[in-house]
Amino acid sequence: MKRLLVVFLLSVNVLLIAHSQNKELTLSQAVLGQRREFGATTLKNLTWRPQTNAFSYIKDNCLMEFDIKTQKEDTILKMDNLNAILVANNLPKIKNYTQVEWVSQFAICFNLETNLIVFNLSTKKIESNIGYLSNAKNIDKCNNNENVAYTINNNIFITNKYNKTIEITLDSNPGIVNGQSVHRNEFGIKKGTFWSPLGNYLAFYRMDETMVTDYPLVDISTRIATLKNVKYPMAGMKSHEVTLGVYNVQTRLTTFLKTGEPKEQYLTNIAWSPDEKSIYIAVLNREQNHLWMNQYNAQTGDFVKTLFEEKNDKYVEPVEPMVFLKSNPNQFIWQSRRDGWNHIYIYNVDGALVKQITKGNWEVTDVLGFDKSERYLYYISTQQNPLERHLYCMDTKKGVEKRLTTIHGTHNPVVSMDLGYFIDVFSSTEIPNQIDLYSTSGKFIKNILKADNPFKDYSMAKLEMVTLKTRDGKFTLNARMLKPASFDASKKYPTVVYVYGGPHSQLVTDDWLGGARLWEYYMANKGYILFTLDNRGTGNRGFEFEGVIHRNLGVNELDDQMVGVEYLKTLPYVDANRIGVHGWSFGGFMTVTMMLKQADQFKVGVAGGPVIDWKFYEVMYGERYMDTPDENPEGYKNADLKNFVTNLKGRLLIIHDDMDETVVPQNSFTFLNECIKNNIQVDYFTYPQHQHNVAGKDRVHLIDKIITYFDEHL
Amino acid sequence: MKRLLVVFLLSVNVLLIAHSQNKELTLSQAVLGQRREFGATTLKNLTWRPQTNAFSYIKDNCLMEFDIKTQKEDTILKMDNLNAILVANNLPKIKNYTQVEWVSQFAICFNLETNLIVFNLSTKKIESNIGYLSNAKNIDKCNNNENVAYTINNNIFITNKYNKTIEITLDSNPGIVNGQSVHRNEFGIKKGTFWSPLGNYLAFYRMDETMVTDYPLVDISTRIATLKNVKYPMAGMKSHEVTLGVYNVQTRLTTFLKTGEPKEQYLTNIAWSPDEKSIYIAVLNREQNHLWMNQYNAQTGDFVKTLFEEKNDKYVEPVEPMVFLKSNPNQFIWQSRRDGWNHIYIYNVDGALVKQITKGNWEVTDVLGFDKSERYLYYISTQQNPLERHLYCMDTKKGVEKRLTTIHGTHNPVVSMDLGYFIDVFSSTEIPNQIDLYSTSGKFIKNILKADNPFKDYSMAKLEMVTLKTRDGKFTLNARMLKPASFDASKKYPTVVYVYGGPHSQLVTDDWLGGARLWEYYMANKGYILFTLDNRGTGNRGFEFEGVIHRNLGVNELDDQMVGVEYLKTLPYVDANRIGVHGWSFGGFMTVTMMLKQADQFKVGVAGGPVIDWKFYEVMYGERYMDTPDENPEGYKNADLKNFVTNLKGRLLIIHDDMDETVVPQNSFTFLNECIKNNIQVDYFTYPQHQHNVAGKDRVHLIDKIITYFDEHL
Fold first, then answer.
1. pTM for this structure?
2. Which residues does A contribute to its contact with B (CB < 8 Å)?
3. Domains (ranges, CATH) in chain B?
4. Tens digit of pLDDT for each residue in A169-185?
5. Are strands A574-584 and A493-498 parallel, antiparallel or unpaired?
6. What angle do CA B389, B395, B399 make, to 5 degrees?
7. How many angstroms away from the CA of B521 is the closest CA of chain A?
């Protein structure tokens, strides 16, 4: 009887598995579920707890820790308990537990709606509560948690630990922007306030945009539509002017650094000296081919000296501020691509190069820092393979590097230099997510987590990695292919190239799903081959690979994409007459380029938010790669897709959001006009009130629109 | 031999006809050629020459005349000769000879680029030359041709015969508009300046729009897109305020009429008394249900009296200013729909009704005027049939009317009351254009012109007129149907309803092509049935037929359109599963209404510039039919098509121009948003830089887009 039962259960099980592996993703799951419903299990907010042997993380709404000596997991604080204390103190509840931060061994810090809280775990008391003004944005606390700087509209406020608030800028002209990211977030700029290391000063960007032309966007959500002007400096046109103010918390006086003329320069990679006496700025000219690493006196604003310069015939693009050494505050780490690859250099404050730390035909992608002795430097690089990211440790004395992560894939380790351990968080095309504990000597200690395949019950498209060569044989091009689960090599499949192709991007990675988005798997499973290739011009492959696009956007990128298409056509299961292309933004530019300049190759294209004419793109990104329209008329002409509309043979859908502040709608509208003038039919759609691509729930509609377009026309 | 030749020629002829009748219209011909390439031959600028027995016209760039006594045609002046004289006087050439006007027996008047010229035909000299400022718009000359009024931007200028120019308004606020049409061209308003009969005064509209909200439109034709704000008073929102100024040419002083409060009223149908002492205004309240015919003192601006009032539970819509009698300047003609149909009334200036001249269940569509004795009144009406227009003469003494035109169709006669003749210019479904001379007693004198069928060499769709009954049996509905030339009753055809359906419109007429546009014939010939029906709510059918739509737009119109569709479904050659609908503006509203509220009936819809939500439409037209959103929440809700998006079953393409100042783009954008929110796929297209529908060469692209959409999806 018992045996019978077991057999019976087993067969049910088999049936269940057979059944469950056939589950199909819904469109909504595919679009919205990649990080939520189908996000691989992980430990959130994984970090080392100061002055302990433990790392902490969030699990089941509890702040947990794992002691590497005792190898025990402990609960530190439940969110419910924390919230009970907050409510008892007349404070709102914390909503997102993953955004707490250690400020000391026993204290965590987090933001509530309009409060910065430091909470003591041992006393269970609120140590500090800085209540700042509502509508605060760009909240930036100083290191000692005694002051919070933030912006309301275009001015900066500071609220101190006594809850006293001072408005430190008083500009009423809406064209003057204080304390926010400038230069359209290029050059690695993500914020506009910079506390000095000890918290005595706040440096801040002041951007004067009054001379920049407005681009008018229209908000149709009001009773009657209203104007939303955005300052949009277009390539070759007047740009904004940025300066750097330094506010002294004691004297309440602000000094502006004497950054001088010409005013249309870029003040990038702001860094404080550890003693708070100096501010360093990587000053870049508008032409973006000459960088001066300048030192300024933080108190007087005076220019002190230029430490060094970098020049390049094409462009210089600094994106990482200097980082000072701890033991030797006269030295700092500087990252530069000056030898063709992003590498680490040590300079001293006299401007003398102490040493190039890393070297080779690969790129450093992240510098994690030195150990206590400041001899061993930890960093992430592409040395193993541009598809992968591994942790390395460089013995800067010997100049010998060691790879500390071994399994192929993408590693995002959390290193404790003090303890000599790192938590290796990684994934790969085969591993959804895995967390292992290692010593920094590379010794495996313990597996902490191995995530299940979130798609184990689902019928999923199959991923294949592909490598090809550029036509000149000089570079390897990385690509990936998705085939439907039901793939049958004797059949012919319609094939869609999903493309981006622009600088800073890498779509193909040795990561879970291969860097693809889940909707690509969904679409492939409907009976498509999905193909993506990172052409020259994309990121993490060195300056030569990227810089080939200079003054000539769309040309080499197209060449490489066609290498991919030629490869596809060699595959018996690719229907060579049914190849489509889709991409957004730069990928929209590439999509239209491919549809017009290789019109015989593509039957259907869907271009989202495409740049059509680079003279409608902004100064910073645009001029870096294209110079100005006056300086490079031929390059602009050849990249202006309005000049090629009569080539169109296939079916083209353009999608452009009406509130797109990044690639302004003028691009697509002038393209439509040119098509209309030439009596060429194209399709068009818009997502009202969206801004450059479509996020949130509406994205399901977008992806449905895109896939349906291929279903109907490819 | 001769006979043989004839036979030979005949057979060639037959071949030629057989061949030539197979010519197919190109899309471009169908869209652009209706008035030009395929316009029926006619005599342009047909008019009676003063103090002669002749009528004049333009033929082969010559001003010709035809003497009805001698029955001889003579050349009066060749345009080349006129231009030679103009050039000799350092004036530009006249470009459009059809815009000359008789000012006396021997003098013609016309505009050059910036000159008003009076030219004497007997002396061959320029009698008068008023050179006004460049950029002049709204050019309005006084009766004696001694002054020209015009606007530059928002101010009024007058240039006199001595070429002296005076700016008579000096408003610098762009929200103040002088001398232009007001109230968004409703109430028959087409201009903003009104010369007094003897030319001593200029009355002009002054519109204060400063309190009206701007609708922001974006012009993408500039280097960087620029804002184009338009003042758009939306239903229920603050509207503009209009006053009427009277400028005295002698004193150069302006008096404003004391039109009083509330300021948001409509000053319509401006008329001068013959003695220039009074101005009459049909003042309408914002609610548009109460009209006061008010007299004002033109010199003091004082209100004199109200002559009479008109009220209606639904709306009063005066569109024709009073016209004073010549022999009895204390009496005037007034047109009113107060008895349910537009009829002619005679009033005296005391406000007493002298007589209702016309009466019956039909509408006067044009009053041509009295004979010298002011006993016989000539007018056009729908008395014979709403599809037709005929000339009538009413003996106002006897109260007996006589129809003077006999052949069915649409007559646009040019009557000479003095001579007792009229030139009957007419067309019908069978007659492209015909011009006959008659005496006003109705006696046929002579045929002047019979136009050839412009399509005689073309394969053309066939027109059929259809009449149906409203469901309640109360009204006849007129409709037309186009069938392909190759029509085969045993086949089934996809069918497209072309709809407008809004007030003031009539699409089905007994006119050449039956009121259809040539592209409808083109489309039908591609293998479609094209069907159009004038539903209740449309024009020229009396107040009950039109006014049924009050507070309830889209409901009765839809009922009647469905009567048409039910009829179509009874036809064996109509494919009941392949019925589509297309329309623009109100027709766009109807298209979307039909697609959503009768979703099972229509497979495909193409809606151009649709009103989606009447709260986004303007005050004048919108509130006349719908009252305000606060006054009529149910009506607005039921007509708000955003509330019905989930009904959509068929395929819907919305086309909306980005510069649409009439139906603002907010309509379509909010509709798209609602579709996106509900994950409903619709298609969308825009014609950048176009304004409510697409004119000019780009229209070929538009019609191609529309027809292609039906080709692909119906």
1. 0.94
2. 213-218, 220, 223-227, 229, 232, 234, 237, 616, 658, 664-666, 669-670, 672-673, 675-677, 679, 681, 683-689, 697-698, 700-701, 704-705, 708
3. 41-131 (2.40.10), 146-321 (2.140.10.30), 462-713 (3.40.50.1820)
4. 999 999 999 999 999 99
5. parallel
6. 95
7. 21
